[in-house]
Design a protein that fits this description.
It is a single chain. With 438 residues, the chain is α/β, with parallel strands linked by helices. It folds into two domains: 13-165, 3-Layer(aba) Sandwich (Rossmann fold), CATH 3.40.50.1970; 168-199 and 248-435, Dehydroquinate synthase-like, alpha domain (Up-down Bundle), CATH 1.20.1090. It has 20 helices and eight strands. It has helices at residues 24-31, 43-59, 83-90, 101-114, 159-164, 167-193, 200-207, 210-213, 217-221, 225-245, 254-264, 276-294, 299-308, 314-325, 331-340, 345-369, 373-383, 396-406, 415-421, 425-435; strands spanning 13-17, 37-42, 68-70, 94-99, 120-123, 136-140, 143-147, 154-158. It has a six-stranded parallel sheet with strand order 1-8-5-4-2-3, sandwiched between helices. A two-stranded antiparallel ribbon has the order 6-7. Strand 4, helix 4 (101-114) and strand 5 form a beta-alpha-beta unit. Helix 6 (167-193) packs across helix 16 and helix 14 packs antiparallel against helix 15. The longest helix has 27 residues, at 167-193.
């Protein structure tokens, strides 16, 4: 089936269904007439779909170039160091990314730098929302960034290929989609307090059908194709929202900031780095808990808290940044962002008064948006997503640091900024740690 794409986006074709791999040559001829295709994959995705796509391209007389295949082990991540070589491989050709997160992001950025006339993505798992998103999630000098580049011109997903993907990849995609629940709550907070007004179109692309898309973890665990199609549709829709909005706000809040910190810290379990979606799962649970904790306070509580809350000076905040990040590659950029968004004096007083005035409205919107912690945890367990910090390699110190540093690294208003400006962030972190018995 053709997935409906909003007008004005980079992506022109998005197809999900049976025997879709056979459609690759026709789409290539339609959108890239006369261009020589080159497949980029890793050993796993080559076996899952790349080899068959190659055969279809040859049969169609498209004379594909020698495929470029990354090793399956050790597990590779989308690091900018791989981009320059890939630019030379795809230059002047039709790049076909056969894979999910890493392969797609590397091709997405490389085709942009090479000046290609778009690229095609053949999805191999429901593991990420980045297939259809504007920009590529690339690690540059140890820091995860969203680098400018258009989304694929065409995305093709064969249901049989998606269904044959390892369950942990489907679980990772499910967690990434569930993250939009708390990301939406963060946007409610930013909308009410003013830093980022809501965009109704972007909001609707992600949130209108979100409850339906994440409502069947049991069916996904059984390999139900309808549930799998819903998951892929949800991930695609969030990517389209990012294309439209030209930023990741519609799909990303504090839960992704935690993930960015942990990616920089190179977390591992038994020598393997947890997937992006699994880190986001823990981040989603933390965000949920922080929101439940914050909005358990009444408006009167917040008035009393604001009356007593200290103001963090620029010097004090700088010392905190130095303590956690001095000597790291991201120190300068984070310090600029963190100090830039620090409110002091009359600006902080005004923000706190806005919080008091809008507390009940904010509480109602946030609590209506999120799923209860216990329910989110239950759904993750159904699919084998991690639900405890140690399952992604976090000990207590790393957990505390990750939450605290996540409040520093981006100029994106979230529950972390609200708690920090109220002087409650460290108390809230204590609650999270206590909840997990760490």
């Amino acid at each position: 089936m053709f997935i409906q794409i909003p007008e004005g986006l980079d992506t022109k074709v998005c197809v999900l269904g049976s025997n879709v791999l056979a459609e690759v040559p026709a789409v290539a001829k339609q959108l890239w007439p006369g261009m020589q295709p080159v497949i980029v994959a890793d050993e796993n995705t080559w076996a899952a779909a790349g080899k068959q796509v190659m055969e279809y391209l040859v049969q169609a007389g498209l004379n594909p170039a020698e495929p470029f295949i990354y090793p399956a082990h050790p597990v590779m991540h989308a690091d900018y160091k791989y981009v320059p070589a890939l630019v030379e491989i795809v230059k002047g050709k039709l790049p076909i990314a056969v894979g999910s997160g890493t392969v797609n992001d590397l091709v997405k950025r490389s085709h942009f730098e090479a000046g290609c006339k778009g690229y095609m993505c053949v999805a191999t798992a429901c593991s990420v929302d980045g297939y259809t998103s504007f920009g590529a999630a690339i690690t540059v000098n140890g820091f995860k960034k969203t680098l400018e580049c258009p989304a694929p011109l065409a995305i093709l997903a064969d249901s049989a290929v998606l269904a044959s993907a390892p369950m942990d990849m489907t679980a990772s995609g499910y967690a990434d989609l569930c993250a939009k629940v708390v990301a939406g709550a963060d946007w409610h907070i930013a909308d009410i307090l003013g830093p980022t007004p809501m965009d109704a179109k972007a909001w609707g692309m992600v949130q209108t059908n979100l409850r339906e898309w994440v409502g069947s973890p049991e069916a996904l665990a059984k390999g139900d194709l309808k549930a799998l199609a819903g998951l892929f549709n949800g991930l695609a829709a969030t990517g389209f929202a990012m294309q439209y909005y030209r930023e990741s706000r519609p799909a990303s809040g504090a839960e992704h900031l935690f993930s960015h910190v942990w990616e920089m810290d190179n977390l591992s379990v038994n020598g393997e780095n947890p997937s992006h979606g699994f880190k986001v799962a823990i981040g989603t649970l933390i965000s949920t808990r922080l929101m439940e904790w914050a909005f358990a306070h009444s408006k009167a509580d917040i008035e009393a808290i604001c009356a007593k809350a200290k103001e963090i000076s620029v010097a004090e905040r700088s010392a905190q940044i130095d303590h956690h990040l001095l000597g790291t590659p991201i120190y300068d950029s984070v310090k600029k962002v963190c100090i830039g968004k620090l409110l002091t004096g009359d600006a902080l007083k005004a923000r706190r008064q806005d919080m008091i005035d809008n507390w009940d409205a904010m509480k109602a919107r946030v609590m209506d948006q999120i799923l209860p912690y216990a329910e989110m945890e239950r759904r993750f367990k159904v699919l084998g997503c991690p639900t405890k910090p140690e399952e992604i390699g976090l000990d207590e110190a790393e957990l505390r640091r990750g939450i605290f540093v996540a409040a520093m690294i981006r100029n994106r208003y979230t529950i972390l900024d609200l708690l920090f400006e109220l002087g409650l962030l460290e108390q809230a972190i204590d609650d999270v740690v206590k909840m997990w018995g760490m």
